[in-house]
Specification:
Strand content of chain A: 5-15%
Number of strands of chain A: 9
Oligomer: heterodimer
CATH architecture of the largest domain in chain A: 3-Layer(aba) Sandwich
Shape of chain A: globular
Structural class of chain B: alpha/beta
Strand content of chain B: 15-25%
Structural class of chain A: alpha/beta
Strand order of the largest sheet of chain B: 8-9-10-11-12-15-16-17
CATH class of the largest domain in chain A: Alpha Beta
Order of helices and strands of chain A: HHEHEHHEHEHEHEEHEHHEHHH
Radius of gyration of chain A: 19 Å
Helix content of chain A: 25-40%
Low-confidence stretches of chain A: 319-327
CATH topology of the largest domain in chain A: Rossmann fold
Largest sheet of chain B: 8 strands, parallel
Number of strands of chain B: 20
Helix content of chain B: 25-40%
CATH superfamily of the largest domain in chain A: Aspartate/ornithine carbamoyltransferase
Distance between the termini of chain A: 34 Å
Largest interface: A-B, 28 and 22 residues
Strand order of the largest sheet of chain A: 7-6-5-8-9
Mean pLDDT of chain B: 97
Distance between the termini of chain B: 25 Å
Number of helices of chain A: 14
Mean pLDDT of chain A: 91
Chain lengths: 327, 430
């Protein structure tokens, strides 16, 4: 994939963050290291730093989102940037303004960065190709294509839980891979970080064609897929999948693919359970697992802020050195 | 003003329909070919065209060209596209019925014919709608459309409501000997897809169109063609399996033919890798194996025609995230050169390549063009095979500049195009 070309500057630094695919292990590691410096010593404290003072960041969301938009907003504010939240479904799109017109109008207000979410795959790439040279674009989810900051906060969580050596890890991603941008970005990131064994687990209706070409092993049986797993990532199942004849219903899905304590016992004793949220309790997993000792679902949300601070500051790095960030 | 008499001398005449490939002169009078070889006794040419070192071939026939008029004149007009066609050596364009209004009444046909006559460039023939307003449910007045000059009927890219409707539409068309032109797509399977379903659609997260969307439709259509005896043509097949199904049916004497669009012979799903909207096609670009299968079908004759699938767009139509862009490419300017390039790349012999854009489509449309026999309308393209040119917005005459072939070096340059014995294009430097 040719996305490295547009994401990375001539000197190798990050310009846009559109997809984990096409980046290097060094860059992903730099994101994780930088996030670590923001996360602070204790999990719950995040330092406010003046790195992006005077910068204007636009949350350009064409699709509803609470969690992602909020964490991006918090991250931007902790970097001292000015933040503008624009919910486009409710404004320009309705008036018939094209995406490019919306973008040009906002750029005319001297914006430095766009955080973009859109239902169409490729939207962040499209915007990145049309912004002014000083403007950066961060993909906050495009169609089924990519959600790279979510994937990076998941990598951050795994590194915190399991250490930096991904080579000895077995990671199982369970659920609706076909419709998941998160899964795609996770798979690329896990492979870039040299994860020993990346597995996906789902019925065939929820697995997109040729998924093996992304570097995963495919399982249809949850118990087999969980065997000796160090990390289990459960994906959200949208209710509308039942209407599209992809599944007979939630009952059988839970029977076969729902994560219970009993099934989890097949994984390694110190297994870490993750979920990008929001959870459907009793569909993807039993509440006892979601709230249990192996679950790090709430930590993921917390780490999301530090990881998004890292990505934003790296993409806006031109006016300060890496040392400033880590200071 | 009477049409001038013309002698084209010294050129290499390639006329696949009559199995001619030789240095022969052609004489034209009153719009028709009056001799191939020695001129008739007492022939006096008003115009002498020296074709030394050049090819003299039948004017091209493009089976599928959207002219955007009536309805979408901001994309292109009959005038702009007929002129672009003439400059590309094309003398006959066949336009599908999905104009606005739809070609489901004689009045729309009349309008298109009138506009094309005003332009005096390429000739336009049209397919009538198979169902009213292309709604897929109510049969159109096919007999009236045929009387008005429609060369076939089609539902363009729109689906039929059921196999029942399809059966009845085929039967009704067969009543009048009308050929049905089919876009083979099971819309339940293609749904909201915007590219081939495969490893790249998975990678890009774009909704895919599975191969079976085409093969299921071809299987169903073939069954109904056999049931009803209608003559049918599959437009723009994209998969190797579908080509083989059609080849098998032709072997079994089912009255069916098929064509392929030029982009599918040069490009594949892999070209979509950067979400490039110029590679957004419906039906989509498929795999490299499919591309090989299409080339094989073109070589064997299972695919008896090659079309541009011309879809000119205004610039904004391609300036959006991939799924939101409009599919299709502007293809009139490059049809001839990309056909010649197939010869250059050893996929086809020169006479076969020319047949696929002349006599092949003429047979499918059942129109008396695409060959250079004595008595035929003088539709002729004279081209310099040694000249090359670069395709870009400046060199394209079509109003639509959307093409995935931008920057490509194109072999073969049209010097003159004649339609009905009139010079409708003359390159200044030729």
């Amino acid at each position: 994939m040719n996305t490295a070309g547009i994401q990375v500057r001539a000197d190798g630094r990050l310009r846009h963050f559109l997809s984990t695919e096409g980046l290097t292990r060094e860059l992903l590691t730099e994101v994780l290291d930088t996030a670590e410096s923001f996360a602070g010593v204790t999990e719950q404290t995040v330092k406010k730093v003046p790195l992006l003072r005077g910068k204007t960041i636009v949350n350009l969301f064409f699709e509803a989102s609470t969690r992602t938009r909020t964490t991006f907003e918090l991250a931007a504010k902790r970097l001292s940037a000015d933040v503008l939240n624009i919910n486009v479904t409710a404004s320009s799109a309705v008036k018939g303004e094209t995406l490019l017109d919306t973008l040009r109008n906002l750029q005319a207000m001297h914006v430095d960065m766009f955080i973009v979410r859109h239902t169409d795959s490729g939207t962040a790439h499209f915007i990145a190709r049309h912004v002014q040279p000083h403007v950066s674009v961060i993909n906050a989810g495009d169609g089924r294509h990519a959600h790279p900051t979510q994937a990076m906060l998941d990598m951050f969580t795994i590194r915190r839980e399991k250490g930096a050596d991904f080579g000895r890890l077995t990671v199982a991603i369970v659920g609706d891979i076909a419709h998941s941008r998160v899964a795609r970005s996770q798979i690329h990131a896990l492979n870039l970080l040299n994860t020993g064994d990346v597995r996906i687990v789902a019925p065939r209706t929820l697995i997109p064609s040729h998924i093996e070409s992304l570097g995963v092993r495919v399982f249809h049986d949850l118990r087999e897929g969980l065997r000796d797993a160090d990390v289990v990532i459960m994906l959200r199942l949208q209710r509308e999948r039942m209407l599209g004849a992809l599944l007979p219903g939630e009952h059988e899905y839970y029977q076969l693919y729902g994560l219970t304590e009993e099934k989890l016992s097949i994984a390694r004793p110190d297994v870490t359970v993750m979920h990008p949220g929001p959870i459907n309790r009793g569909v993807e997993m039993d509440s006892r697992v979601a709230d249990g000792p192996r679950s790090v679902i709430l930590q993921q949300v917390t780490y999301g802020i530090a990881v998004r601070m890292a990505v934003m500051s790296m993409a806006m790095q031109e006016n300060h050195t890496a040392q400033d960030i880590h200071a | 003003m009477p049409d001038p008499s013309i002698r084209i001398s010294g050129g290499r005449l390639i006329d696949p329909a009559n199995r001619i490939d030789d240095l022969l002169d052609v004489c034209i009078a009153e719009g028709r070919i009056v001799s191939v070889g020695a001129p008739p006794d007492g022939f006096r040419a008003d115009i002498e065209l020296d074709a030394g070192g050049r090819y003299v071939i039948p004017g091209l026939i493009d089976l599928n060209a959207r002219l955007r008029e009536p309805g979408e004149e901001f994309k292109a007009t009959i005038d702009s596209e007929c002129r672009a066609a003439a400059a590309g050596g094309i003398t006959t364009l066949c336009c599908p019925p999905d104009t606005d209004p739809v070609i489901d009444t004689p009045a729309v046909i009349e309008l298109i014919r009138h506009r094309a006559q005003q332009t005096s460039a390429a000739r336009v023939v049209a397919l009538g709608a198979l169902t009213r307003g292309l709604d897929g449910e109510r049969l159109s007045e096919m007999a009236a459309l045929q009387r008005a000059g429609c060369v076939g009927v089609s539902n363009a890219l729109k689906p039929l409501a059921s196999t029942y409707i399809e059966r009845r539409a085929f039967e009704y068309a067969a009543t009048f000997g009308l050929t049905v032109f089919l876009h083979a797509a099971d819309t339940d399977l293609s749904a909201n897809g915007c590219m081939h379903e495969g490893h790249l659609s998975t990678r890009l997260g774009l909704p895919g169109i599975p191969e079976a969307a085409e093969t299921v439709a071809v299987a169903r259509d073939l069954a109904l063609i056999q049931q009803t005896g209608v003559r049918a043509h599959f437009c723009r097949l994209t998969t190797q399996r579908a080509v083989r199904m059609v080849a098998r049916a032709r072997f079994d004497d089912v009255p069916v033919s098929a064509d392929v669009a030029i982009p599918n012979l040069y490009l594949s799903e892999l070209d979509t890798i950067d979400f490039g909207a110029d590679y957004h096609f419906i039906p989509p670009l498929r795999t490299q194996e499919d591309r090989d299968g299409l080339l094989e079908g073109l070589h064997s004759g299972a695919l008896s025609a090659l079309c541009s699938d011309h879809q000119p767009h205004e610039a904004d139509a391609k300036l959006a995230p991939f799924p939101a862009t409009e599919p299709g490419a502007s293809g009139l300017d490059s049809l001839l050169s990309l056909t010649l390039k197939l010869v250059e790349e050893n996929h086809l012999l020169l006479p076969d390549a020319i047949a696929r854009v002349t006599s092949g489509p003429a047979a499918i449309l059942n129109i008396p063009y695409g060959e250079l026999g004595v008595g035929r309308a003088a539709d002729i393209c004279i081209l310099d095979p040694a000249a090359t040119w670069r395709l870009d917005a400046d060199s394209m005459l079509s109003q639509g500049k959307n093409t995935p072939f931008r920057g490509w070096e194109m072999p073969g340059r049209v010097c003159y195009t004649l339609r009905d014995g009139r010079i409708i294009f003359n390159r200044d430097d030729s």
